[in-house]
Structures are given as C-alpha cells and as structure tokens.
Design brief:
Largest sheet: 7 strands, parallel
Number of helices: 23
Oligomer: single chain
Helix content: 25-40%
CATH topology of the largest domain: Rossmann fold
CATH superfamily of the largest domain: P-loop containing nucleotide triphosphate hydrolases
CATH architecture of the largest domain: 3-Layer(aba) Sandwich
Radius of gyration: 28 Å
Structural class: alpha/beta
Strand order of the largest sheet: 10-11-9-12-13-8-14
Distance between the termini: 37 Å
Length: 669
C-alpha cells in the first residue's frame, strides 16, 4: 500500500517520509530503528563519561537566537539545559530547523556527551518533550532521520503500517515448522515495539534469517553448481615454476607455496580457475599472483593485471617489468595519451604484448587480446564482476584470480564465496618487522607530535587518518580541519591532503608526490586503506580510532611497515568507554588480521561485516539490526535444505531474483 493511502498519513506526511526512501507500508516496516531509548535508564549528566551516548531527562531553559550571518553561516543552534544543580548545553550543527521545535520545558535528550574542562555539552541530540501524557515508556525506537522529520512522525507511521501489513515469509512452511521459526509478522512488530531487550534481539535474529535466506538463495540461483571446462591448456612445468620463484629476493613462505600449488593444480586441471586469494597485509599475495601470470605466459598465453587506481597500476607495472624482463609488458590507463593507447591496443590485438597492466581502461570494448587466458584482479575489483564479465569476452574461459587484503572471517567465507576456491596465505615473510601499536590519550598528544617531527627530520614519512572529510557535526575530527591545524602547527613539515571527494587525478598526483617524498606527512581519510607501498612511511596516526572497526584499523596500520625501518601506529581516542578501549587494546595485542576479523565480527555483529564495501546496497535494509553470525548460518542451512528438497522453488526463484536481480553484476562467478 502507498503511504499516502494509509489512514492518518495522507499526501503531506507521505511526502515527508519519502525523504527517508520509503513510499509504501512494506518499505516503512522495513525501516528499522537504529537504536532504542530505554526509558528506565535515564542518567545524571555528571555520571556520563566523555564521548559516551546518554539519555538525559532535564529542563530546557533557553535557546540562543539563531546565528546566520558571517562566519556563522552554518547555523549552529545552542540551548541551555538544567538538570538539578547542573547546567550544560546542547549543540546542533547544521540543523537550524530544531529552533522551531524547542520551547522551554521538560525534555528527554539523547546524544553524545562531551566534557572539556568541566564544560559539558550534548552534541546533536535527539529530543522528546515530556509531559504528563507522555507515551514514552519501556523501549522506545529511535529511527535514522533526515531533513527535520520528527521521531514521533516515523513512530506513528510505522505503527499504522504494522496494522495493515502482514508480510509472508519466503522460507518454505515445512522448514519454518521444522526449525520452530517465529512468525515473520510478529518479528516485525517486536522489532519496532519491543517490550524487552530479549524480544528485540529475537526479532532482529528472525528478520536477519529471512533477509539472508533471500540473499543466499539469489547467490545460489545465479552461481549454480556449474563448472566450466578448460579451453586454455597450460604447458608450464613444475620445475619452470620453481625456477621462476627464484627471481624474487626472498624465499616463499609455506602459505605462498601452498597458494602457488593450488593455482598450478587449477590451471592444469580440466576446469577453469575461479579463485579468491586472501592474505593479510604483507603476506606476499602479489608474488603469488605474478607466479600465476608466469604460468600463463610461459604456456604461450596473454595475461592481464587489473588495478583499482592509476597509482597502484603504475606501481604494479614497475614490478611486472622488473619481474618479467624476458616478456613484453604493456601499460594502459586513463592518463595515457591517445597515441599511447592506440599503440598499446594495436600491439595487444597482434599478440605483441604478453602482459597488460592497467586500470578500468582495460575494460573498454576496443581493447582486444590475441590469446588472453589469465586475469588478476586487485582488491577493489572483488565485487566488480560486471566489469570482469566484459573481460571474459576478450578471452575464452579465462582463469581468474581475485586478490583480497581484507581478511574475511573464516566463519563467513564459505557462505558468500561458495562458488570460489578460497586460498588463504596465513603467514608473513619472516623479515617483515611488526608494527608497534599504541593507544594514545589526549594528554600525550604533544609528546607524540614532538616525536613524529623528529622522525620526519630523519627522513621518515607519516600518515594522519581521520574518519571523515569535512567538519559537519563536531563529533569527529575531519581531514580538512586537521590538515589546516597541522600545517599551521608544524610549518617545517610538508603536508598533503587526500580524501574521496577529490578527483581521481588529484588523488593519484598527491599519492605520487608522497611516494616521491615531496610530501612529508599525508592527512587523509580511509581512501588510503588500500594504497601504494611507501617504504619510508613509518608512522600511522589514526584519529577517533574508536569509530573504526578492527579490520579497518588493521588495514590502515598495514600502510606502514613496508620498508626496512621500524614502524609505529598510534591510535588516538578521547573515549573512556570500556568497550571502545577493549577493542583498541585487541588491535594493540595482535597483528593477525584474521584473528582481528573474527573478533570484529564478534564485537560489532554480522550486520556491520557486510557493509558498503563488501556488499553495496544488498543488505542495507538490515544494517541497523543487531544479530549474531548464527542467523547467517541458519539461513544458509535453510537455503540448502529448501533447494535439496525442492521446496517452493518457483516462488523462491521469483522473489529472490526480483529483489536481487542486480546481484548478477556483482557476485563472483
């Protein structure tokens, strides 16, 4: 049902709710709360640790007049609050509309508490007016909002939608009975209107099972159980592969040797290769990939190495030309001149280039190979099969090696990469020096900066990483803000700025300058999480480290320690939360990315594991649900049994493919 047709909503409210991306009652009941207010858990403002979230019952005394002119064009709103004898402020950044909603009186505020030198503020809090008729009792859902839409409107609309919607489960009835799954409709009601925390958790688990059932069914339908027969016959011998490994200035680890063996067994088998090679930062995946390329070119075929950026492509091109002096290596990227592109394409077509290294430019329709057989795709292409499919048209039954430096929890890899042979390199070269990691509180910042300046004077380089680009809400350090602050505070240090809103050529230029040591310190967002090797970069400083997941912190830490010198990672946090500090201390205690991935999954929940980078929009509906990994395994078991017993196959196929039709363009197949 369209929201405008729902009794008590109408066109005006429906238009407001459409800003949240919902236009039907079905979409609205799937708009899950991001949090809950426990109305029994109101606290004293004095008891809250700095940077923690809290529910505060207090009196709003005064709202400052809105400041809109001059340097205050961001329209910051400030209000004076009172709780007993304690006075404090509430601050809203870029939300001028809240002024119209605030009147003196009793309120509930929910937001992040900041306490600087005994000056307490609530940052961007949500709020509810309290009166004798207040309906706020028990667990109250808090929904993600936009453009001044009030919480009460969403809560009211959701309750109305729940009254008319009775969603049906895609899971076959015999399996619902067999595994005693709660009714789906009841789960929707309890996720929005839970009486207890346990009710909310059980509802989240049931909804996650339903969503993963649909997603995994779509994976299974698209991938199938097909195997493709080999058409490219490799003639390379094991002795030749062993001799090639001697070209590297190090001895392959046991993990690298196992990976090379797996690739060799693949390319000499009757089926084509489709393999995911995952390894921790610095585990030597590139050397393994180059060995796979050697197997192809030694057998008389062409190979291609795809990189996500021009900086990485240029770096890989240098490695390829150095490693394959007896083969013809070409380079194709957007920065190439028209003449260079034309000459490369002609040489490829004539078979005069054995190995092509490039970016997305390789995927253009007019790039034709003479005998392409082997393709290596770097990290960023892990879900780019829509693009890799265009490569398959350039060669017959390509052998594909997809590399990932992001550790995938072993508990999930078999579910989402069941169509791939997964090879993991668990060890690292013995000569690599571990990165020392420390958690730095604010009182030690000055000492840290002094030490970093000394490192830079010794010819070392440093990264300063922030969780966001701009200072839009005052809750986290921004790259632009930090860049200006550091540049002014350390005028003898050459700083560069790098973030995702910059054009690709700007980003590549900045990274290249950093690598050439024309920049001493780089202030950046997580855009450098997967980046070039800068051997002299020995210092990684991560601001607001408590806002990152463990795996992401580990990837950032992996940007240093790539040279011969001792490297350091400093985790900066102002949080006093025990949970946050526990997570950071876990990172400090281990450099094993797979251990961290499993721990991250345990601490943050499965809903955060398959985030934007891993799965795009496919699980965006349930990103706010808190559920365990067991929900995913239960869904996998249900899908397997439904297909094995051929239960409701037509209905499952229709529903799964309707929802996840675009999955055809992104799954690894």
């Amino acid at each position: 049902m369209q929201l405008k047709d729902l009794k008590g909503i109408g066109e005006k409210r429906a238009k407001e709710l459409s800003k949240l991306g919902v236009s039907t009652t079905e979409e609205l009941i799937r708009y899950y709360p991001r949090n809950y207010l426990d109305m029994t858990n109101r606290v004293s403002i004095r008891e809250v640790a700095h940077n923690d979230m809290a529910l505060i019952a207090c009196k709003l005394v005064y709202v400052e007049p809105l400041r809109t002119g001059g340097k205050y064009k961001n329209k910051t709103v400030r209000a004076l609050l009172e709780q007993g004898r304690d006075n404090f402020t509430a601050v809203w950044f870029n939300q001028p509309y809240v002024v119209q909603k605030l009147q003196p009186g009793e309120y509930l505020f929910y937001g992040r508490v900041q306490n600087y030198y005994d000056r307490i503020s609530l940052i961007n809090p949500t709020f509810e007016r309290l009166d004798t008729n207040s309906k706020l009792k028990g667990l109250v859902p808090v929904y993600p909002l936009k453009s001044g839409i009030p919480q009460w409107l969403v809560r009211d609309a959701v309750q109305k939608a729940l009254a008319v919607e009775e969603p049906s489960s895609l899971i076959p009835a015999p399996l619902i009975t067999k595994y005693d799954l709660p009714p789906l409709g009841a789960a929707f009601r309890k996720i929005h209107l839970p009486a207890t925390q346990r009710e909310m958790q059980n509802a989240a688990e049931r909804l996650a099972i339903e969503e993963y059932f649909t997603l995994i069914a779509a994976f299974k339908l698209i991938k199938g159980d097909r195997t493709e027969a080999r058409t490219n016959h490799y003639t390379v011998t094991e002795r030749e592969v062993a001799d090639f490994e001697k070209r590297f200035p190090f001895t392959f680890t046991k993990g690298q040797q196992t990976a090379v063996r797996a690739i060799y067994d693949n390319v000499t088998s009757p089926q084509r290769m489709n393999r995911l090679l995952q390894g921790d930062v610095g585990s030597g995946k590139t050397a393994v990939a180059l060995t796979g390329i050697f197997m192809a070119v030694k057998s008389g075929y062409q190979a291609v190495y795809l990189s996500p950026t021009e900086v990485l492509a240029a770096q890989n091109y240098a490695v390829l030309t150095r490693t394959f002096p007896d083969y013809r290596v070409g380079y194709l990227a957007g920065a190439c001149t028209a003449r260079e592109k034309r000459e490369i394409k002609e040489a490829l077509f004539r078979g005069e280039i054995d190995i092509l290294c490039g970016t997305h430019a390789v995927l253009q329709a007019d790039v034709q190979f003479a005998r392409l057989a082997f393709c290596v795709c770097d990290e960023q292409h892990r879900f780019g099969v829509a693009q890799r499919n265009s490569l398959s048209e350039k060669g017959e039954n390509l052998d594909v090696l997809v590399m990932s430096a992001t550790p995938i929890p072993r508990t999930l890899s078999l579910i989402f990469y069941g169509d791939l042979d997964v090879t993991t390199i668990p060890d690292k070269p013995a000569e690599r020096i571990p990165v020392s990691t420390a958690v730095i509180p604010p009182r030690k910042y000055d000492d840290m900066f002094l030490w970093i300046r000394q490192e830079i004077k010794r010819g070392r380089q440093a990264y300063f990483v922030c969780p966001k680009i701009e200072d839009d809400d005052g809750q986290a350090t921004s790259a632009e803000e930090l860049f200006e602050k550091l540049k002014n505070g350390m005028p003898d240090v050459r700083f560069g700025l790098l973030h995702g809103k910059m054009r690709e050529r700007e980003k590549d230029g900045t990274m290249s300058a950093f690598k050439r040591k024309e920049i001493d310190a780089l202030v950046a967002t997580t855009v450098i999480e997967v980046g070039v090797d800068v051997p002299d970069a020995t210092v990684m400083v991560i601001y607001d480290a408590d806002r990152f997941g463990l795996s992401q912190l580990h990837q950032l830490r992996g940007r240093v320690g790539r040279g011969a010198d001792k490297s350091y990672c400093f985790l900066l946090t102002e949080s006093e939360s025990e949970t946050a500090l526990e997570r950071l201390n876990i990172l400090r205690s281990t450099t094993d990315g797979f251990v961290l991935a499993e721990k991250d999954l345990e601490l943050r929940g499965s809903g955060d594991f398959l985030g934007t980078r891993q799965s795009g929009k496919f699980l965006s509906e349930i990103k706010n649900l808190h559920y365990t990994t067991d929900a995913i395994f239960t869904a996998k078991k249900l899908v397997d049994e439904a297909f094995e017993r051929r239960l409701d196959q037509d209905r499952i196929r229709a529903a799964a493919m309707e929802k996840y039709e675009s999955l055809k363009d992104v799954v690894l197949n």
